[in-house]
Amino acid sequence: MTTVEPRPVGALLREWRQRRRLSQLQLSIDADISTRHLSFVETGRSKPTKEMILRLSEHLDVPLRERNQLLLAGGYAPAYPASGLDAPELGAVRAALRQVLAGHEPHPALVVDRAWRLVDSNASIRLFLEEVAPDLLEPPVNVLRLSLHPRGMAPNIANLGEWRAHILGRLRRQAAATADPELAELLAELRDYPCDQPEPEVELPGASDVVVPLRFRHRGRELAFLSMTAVFGTPLDVTVAELAIESFFPADQTTVDTLRDRTGEPSS
């Protein structure tokens, strides 16, 4: 068996500083510590206190899950709980999510975790799923895989090249910001999916564009959606910090009319 030695907290902090493209001087000013002290912490010549690790993590915008890992590397207990979403203490969070999802009807909305796994959704999300292969809907459902997979939503996305470039760019930035290997693996998988449309290397908006729309073919109509992401403000639980609500809004009158008409359809 091969034993992997735990990495020292100073080296991990240095990696996060470099990932954020900050110099030691910039971080020391932001965190109100001396550059000499920060250098000693990063090289292991000085053992940081728990408070110092948390202060540097805050200024480096380290995700809560990784802050706990930094604390463990420094010899301290994790500071942030990671409750299951079904835990009693997260009852108010569950209620808030359900209220947002229900209140967004008849427009599609869903909740995802850090790895883009589906946590919950409202009934209107079914509009996107009518022609999706059943195996892609087996839990855990990854919504990015569902969106770009050739047996998922991709065949019905009219602007697949543009939407794919938008999704991959967003995931690439998220993977770089979090250093999450699961996101890096997902990015590599999605890049291998076929696409028969040109993919812009950069998102170049048209004269009247403000965001990248999702143009989706549904029962002979082309619907247009704008998406918006919402997260909980100042969460202190890892699970809550990693949740995001993805809401879709109609971008034209055809989509408004279609969503309005669907409210009269029987539930499946």
Automatic annotation (TrEMBL):
Protein name: Transcriptional regulator
GO terms, molecular function: DNA binding
Gene3D superfamilies cross-referenced by the UniProt entry: 3.30.450.180, lambda repressor-like DNA-binding domains
Alphabetical list of CDD domains matching this protein: HTH_XRE
Entries under InterPro entries matching the protein: Cro/C1-type_HTH, Lambda_DNA-bd_dom_sf, MLTR_LBD
Domain HTH cro/C1-type stretches: 13-67
The organism's place on the tree of life at top rank: Bacteria
PROSITE patterns reported in the protein's UniProt record: HTH_CROC1 (PS50943)
SUPFAM superfamilies hit by this protein: lambda repressor-like DNA-binding domains
Organism: Saccharopolyspora thermophila
